[in-house]
């Protein structure tokens, strides 16, 4: 029987294997994630002020959106590669997510929903891999939540 720790580590391994697809096309995946995020959850567009004047209908395929999406997914990739190591994750977050970017946990959760959808479509994740991605993202969000509490960010 697998312990909780072994299970989440196995899930991280599955996700990181799938993440190779994302690494090969950060801008494509990132653009798709941000475009869908803004379409499904328009309130999230305020997190990215440079897009406020771009009509939602013009986001798909926009190079600037793809470039920003690549930045978001590269940072997420770094967090995933830490495989739940709280010290590494704290260093990677470096309070910027909370204090500079103002990314609250609700927004992380919305990005997670959209990321899962895009990964299922683009990387053709099956149900097991989708489940692993969801569990890993929930694990990561719980670590981020703990960090936010430590630094006094009410995210």
TrEMBL record:
Domain of life where this protein originates: Eukaryota
UniProt function note: Monomeric heme protein which primary function is to store oxygen and facilitate its diffusion within muscle tissues. Reversibly binds oxygen through a pentacoordinated heme iron and enables its timely and efficient release as needed during periods of heightened demand. Depending on the oxidative conditions of tissues and cells, and in addition to its ability to bind oxygen, it also has a nitrite reductase activity whereby it regulates the production of bioactive nitric oxide.
- Sorted alphabetically, which PANTHER family does this protein's record hold? MYOGLOBIN
Write the gene name. LOC107703794
Q: Would you identify the family this protein belongs to, as annotated?
A: Belongs to the globin family.
A cellular component annotation (GO) from this entry: sarcoplasm
Spans traversing the lipid bilayer: none
Location in the cell reads: Cytoplasm, Sarcoplasm
Q: Which Pfam families match?
A: Globin
Describe the location of the Globin domain by residue ranges: 1-149
Q: Which GO terms describe its molecular function?
A: heme binding; metal ion binding; oxidoreductase activity; oxygen binding; oxygen carrier activity
What's in the keyword line of the UniProt record?
Cytoplasm, Heme, Iron, Metal-binding, Muscle protein, Oxidoreductase, Oxygen transport, Transport
Q: How does it assemble?
A: Monomeric.
| Reaction equation(s) it catalyzes | H2O2 + AH2 = A + 2 H2O; Fe(III)-heme b-[protein] + nitric oxide + H2O = Fe(II)-heme b-[protein] + nitrite + 2 H(+)
Name this polypeptide is given:
Myoglobin
Against PROSITE patterns, the record matches this protein to:
GLOBIN
